[in-house]
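Much of our argument rests on the idea that a fold can be written as discrete symbols. This step matters because it turns folding into a mapping between discrete strings. The record that follows shows the chain in one-letter code together with its fold in token form.
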Amino acid sequence: MTATGWADEALGLVLRRVGETSEQVGDRFPLYADPAEGRWTTTGRGSWTGGFWAGLLWLRAGRTGSGEDRTAAAAVTARLAPWAEADTATRGLILWYGTALAAGDAAAQALRGRAAEAAVGAFDRELGLVPWGAALGGARLRARTDGVPGLVPLLASAGPEGQAVAAEHVHRHLDLCLPREGTGRPRPAWRLDEAHGWTAEADPAPGWTRGEAWLLLAVADALLLADAPSWRADRLTRAAELLLADCAMPGPLVPPTNAHHADGPFDTSAAAITAVALLKLALVPGAAWSRACASRAEAVLHRLAHDHLTRPGGARPAGMLLDGCYDTHSGTAVRHELVWGDFFMALGLAALLGRVYLRRV
């Protein structure tokens, strides 16, 4: 089967699964599905993953061209509105990916603008970042690698001030998360302690492959936006090179959730996020890594499609991207279908097929 053939087949399966999921979850948001029967655990408000469900619906509408599918996507996107002013850096994940694919939808564009303005307003100039926030529980003054992707392009969409804030936000996270020695695994989570300043948190620890994928995605987004000196493109390039050399390019195409425990559960969602990040890095003008990134991304997506995606004719629904790990520390959904894994796989496949332009998503 040609590259176009296997990718198109896989994308069709994932988006067909979107229709089945929609019927199952109703007006709730899917979070993760058990690998045996495909039943979804859901949330009422979407949590930090709600934008990926909206994004999947927009991808389906783009493939089918159906007005009914666009209406369904718009309805779910509208239900993300309470997150626009919520105190969480994950509003980037929620409201960038939940709206970026909604081409021509005025309400989605207005919601994205409202969220971008609120995010700029949440920027703490003394800390140099938008804090992790308290909306999802825990200490508010934290910095995590999953608080950067999505938020960088969302902030940058708010004009010159937003672009300056986006650059500061990503670089402050690089200050904290990249290894001081210039090589090795990032440290993904930090908390501000009044007595000791920024203190690394024990969980998640270095080696969390999804955290590495999130950071690589944020750096890729920043490089595609870096059209002014404030973005510090040279430093972003060095960060990308480090993450590529130490995290994204070596090792298995589908990594374990913890790079230091190769016998632990896989995380296909980390692989799917990485594939999209690599496809974005392949678009950076003049980058020496372009061909290698594009080739690696295609190899990752091919492996996901052939080894981890359910096919028709089995006991469980077709189009499930299995072997995603929600949280290995608590043992929650360690070999499951994850809504954001489905989203990034579908996005990567659509980009590989030339149906989505990643500079806009």
